[in-house]
Design brief:
The protein has 68 residues and is an all-alpha fold. The chain folds into two domains: 35 residues; 32 residues. It is 94% helix and 0% strand. The protein is built from two helices and no strands. The longest helix has 33 residues.
């Protein structure tokens, strides 16, 4: 039982550290993008294209599985 609590504590600690690193990294990226409007435009185009590709793939898969 003690081992479960120790492993749970380790998991929570590692999770907090990783999440904090992601948050600080995202903040740094957001600050650098804010100072470069052309990068924001590029990022929107790339994100839109990727979301459109995922939507097309999901629609094609749904159509394929519906006809089988």
């Amino acid at each position: 039982m003690l081992q479960g609590f120790v492993l749970g504590g380790v998991q929570i600690s590692v999770s907090l550290l990783v999440n904090a690193a992601i948050i600080f990294g995202a903040g740094t990226i957001a600050e650098s993008l804010k100072s470069r409007p052309s990068w924001i435009k590029w990022q929107r185009w790339v994100t839109g294209a990727l979301l459109g590709a995922v939507g097309t793939k999901l629609a094609a898969d749904a159509f394929t599985s519906a006809t089988v």
